[in-house]
Amino acid sequence: MLQYQRGEVSTLSLPSLLTGWLAGPQVEKLNAVSEDKILKMAISSLSEIFKIEEDRITQYLVASHLANWNSDPFTLGAYAYAMVNTSEARKVLNEPVDKTLYFGGEALYEGAEMGTVEAALASGKNVARRIIEDH
User: 1, 21 in Cβ contact below 8 A?
Assistant: First the structure.
């Protein structure tokens, strides 16, 4: 995530937010690369995409943050995606166990946005409603 101040580009006083996302086998090549180097790569990429000098992009950079999901011990780079039997598995996991154990999250969302933050939030709300109804 790169956060930059719009400055001369706009009269808005709030900072703008730019999010970049890397996926696929190429990500593993970046496991040993420092956050600073990845930020420099991102700035270089933006420079090429928008035909703006890297120094100018860096000048407006307010903050940056790198989330390396690949090295996160709880996700190990994984995210949800549908497979052949996903619908059946989702039905089972969406049912509480003895009204004491409830599952929710991006993988259990039944809409088209499975695997997204929106799906995780929607699923969490559905589970919260279910808990309230059950108790």
Answer: no
